[in-house]
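User: Can you predict the 3D structure for this chain?
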Amino acid sequence: MAKEVSRSAVRDVRQVEPLESLMETVWPGVFSPFITRQAAQPHIAHIDVLDHDDAFVLKAEIAGVDKERLDVQVHGNQVYISGIKEEGSDREEGNYIYRERRYGEFSRTVQLPADVDGEKTKAMYKDGVLELTLPKTEAARRKKIAIS
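Assistant: Here is the predicted structure, written as C-alpha cells:
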C-alpha cells in the first residue's frame, strides 16, 4: 500500500514557476493561498516523484499524448517535460454539453532536491503514464557511514 506524503514532506520537489519564485523571494508565503496551478495551467502533466537511495522515479500522467510528440530533457536537478496533445480527426461534431478534456501544448519543469545523471536516465511510456528513472549523481547519493 502506498504511503501518503504530506505536502511539507515534498517541498524539495517542486514545479519551477519564475513569477511564483520571485514573489516567494520578495514576500515569502503571502501569495501561496491564492495560487491554483491547475486552474491557471489546464494542460499540466500531473506527476508523482519517488526518492530511492540511488535514483528518483518521476511518473507523469499524460494520457492521450503520442510518445513522438513528447520532449524530455534533464539538466542538473531539473527535469523538463513538454508535449502536444492533439484533438484528432475523429472529433464528433455537435454541441458540447460538458467538456473537460484539454488539448494543445503543455510543459512542466520540476526541480529535484539533488542532481541527476541525464546520460543514464531511462524513460518508458505506457498506458498514458511517462515514467522516468533518474539516477542520482555519485555526489548526490546517500552513503552509509560505518561507526567505529
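Residues 13-19+35-140 form a domain with the Immunoglobulin-like fold (CATH 2.60.40.790). The two ends are 37 Å apart (CA to CA).
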